[in-house]
């Protein structure tokens, strides 16, 4: 089974490989596609849309399964704060599976800047004095002191989205 990941981000590719570990029939490739949503998706709906767009566009590149992984920020009901959210989508062209991952409250200073229009990745780079945090442990890894990193969080979201493709219970 050929799986196309709608991203060139090595963390998203590694998360897909991790979620499919043990499936010897799966090969995973990176596919450069647009998400069709802003660089900083805001809200679950926009983040899900980005994941679905990536999955469909990866599938259209000639794969058996298309995978889309999208990180965004969202307000969560009546809970205070702005949260990092992660969504995954998987499609074979007929069925679409969706899964959500970690929800992690952002520090107030980071949230203020993101609400002001900045993208989370560059804000985290600036706050930490590093570069490409999003392609390393991500905000999830930094804000949990490594308890969970971005790859693990994305793999968890993808595990949920793979449900309709790995079991007959759907």
Summarize the SSE layout with pairings.
Elements: E1 2-5, H1 10-19, E2 27-30, H2 44-60, E3 65-76, E4 79-91, E5 96-105, H3 108-115, H4 120-128, H5 138-143, H6 150-161, H7 163-166
Helix and strand element order: EHEHEEEHHHHH
Task: Please write the CATH class name.
Answer: Alpha Beta
How many extended strands?
5
CATH topology: Maf protein
- Largest beta-sheet details: 5 strands, mixed
Strand line-up of the largest beta sheet = 2-1-3-4-5
If you average the pLDDT, what whole number results?
95
Number of helices: 7
Q: Termini, distance in Å?
A: 20 Å
What percent of residues adopt helix (DSSP H or I)? 25-40%
Globally, the shape reads globular
β-sheet strand percentage = 25-35%
Radius of gyration, in Å, reads 15 Å
Q: Name the poorly predicted regions.
A: none
Structural class: alpha/beta
Give the tally of structural domains: 1
CATH-derived architecture: Alpha-Beta Complex
Brief digest:
With about 170 residues, the chain is an alpha/beta fold. It is about 40% helix and about 25% strand.
What does this structure look like?
The model has no long low-confidence stretch (mean pLDDT 95). A hairpin with a 2-residue loop joins strand 3 and strand 4. It contains seven helices and five strands. It is an alpha/beta fold and 170 residues long. The protein has a single domain, classed as Maf protein (Alpha-Beta Complex), CATH 3.90.950. Strands 2-1-3-4-5 form a five-stranded mixed beta sheet. The protein is globular, with a radius of gyration of 15 Å. The longest helix is centred in the first third of the chain and has 17 residues. Helix 3 packs across helix 4.
């Amino acid at each position: 089974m050929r799986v196309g990941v709608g991203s060139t981000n090595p963390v998203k590719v590694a998360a897909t490989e991790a979620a499919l570990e043990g499936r010897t029939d799966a090969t995973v490739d990176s596919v450069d596609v647009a998400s069709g949503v802003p660089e900083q998706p805001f809200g679950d709906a926009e983040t899900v849309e980005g994941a679905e767009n990536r999955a469909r566009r990866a599938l259209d590149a000639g794969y058996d399964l298309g995978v889309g992984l999208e990180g965004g920020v969202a307000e969560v009901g009546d809970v205070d704060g702005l949260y990092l959210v992660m969504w995954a989508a998987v499609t074979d062209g007929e069925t679409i599976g969706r899964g959500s991952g970690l929800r992690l409250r952002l520090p107030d200073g980071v949230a203020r800047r993101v609400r002001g229009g900045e993208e989370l990745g560059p804000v985290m780079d600036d706050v930490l004095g590093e570069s490409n945090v999003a392609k390393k442990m991500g905000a999830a890894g930094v804000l949990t002191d490594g308890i969970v990193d971005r790859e693990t969080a994305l793999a968890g979201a993808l595990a949920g989205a793979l449900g309709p493709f790995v079991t007959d219970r759907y």
